[in-house]
Amino acid sequence: MKTNHFIFLFVITFLVLGLLSFAGCDMGDMIHVKTPNTIQQQTGLASTITLNEAESEYQLWYQHMQTAGSQWKSNIEHANEIRNMINQLSLSALDQVGPTVAGVPMLGPLLPAASGLLGLFLGASKLRKEKEDSFNKGLDEGRKTTALPGATGITAATA
Description:
By secondary structure, this protein is mainly alpha-helical. It has a domain at 11-87. Helix content is 74%, strand content 4%. It contains 4 helices and 2 strands, in the order H-E-H-E-H-H. It has helices at residues 3-23, 37-43, 51-101, 107-145; strands at residues 32-34, 48-50. Strands 1-2 form a two-stranded antiparallel ribbon.
């Protein structure tokens, strides 16, 4: 046999052994997947994980989101039922009071308007507080992101 034949057999043997070793390995453990930042923060996962781990973690995360979402939807539906019941009671009360008030001039049309204005004033403080909290949180985030490295407490937003 010539030397070329030995080299060819040697290369073929190592090629077959290499392919056989890959056949015994799970490629899902060797391939890595990037984890989105929001998922990292929610679950505490690393920035990159193996494909096999990513598939199982995704299933757990998805099931958790479905459970939380269905619970939230149930709570919203329950709150809507209460709101509808209160609306129905208030409309029923207005229907009962309406004929009685009709005898007093200008009081009939003013009663629904007064109840509407009362609803606006009751909800306005909550809405204002939510907007202020959102605005203040945005200011804080802006200060964090625009802070100059090595500065002595002065940020770019306030400078």
